[in-house]
Amino acid sequence: MGENAILNANLAVQPLGDPIYVDDIGIAVNKGNGEMLDRLNEALATIQENGTYAEISEQYFGRDISQ
Prior knowledge:
Blueprint: H1 2-9, H2 34-49, H3 52-61
InterPro entries: Solute-binding_3/MltF_N (IPR001638)
Pfam families: SBP_bac_3
Domain Solute-binding protein family 3/N-terminal: 20-62
């Protein structure tokens, strides 16, 4: 993510306006491995609900990137 690079490189630039595009991020799971898919989705839902996702996002990106 370019925004992360800007923040970590201490560049004298700032984001202006909305991004041109947003990358969707996914986790690959072997086809047919429904149990793993269910467990991943459950874990993601849990950290989103309990605020851990936003906390991690704030730590690394300075904002909640899930919004």
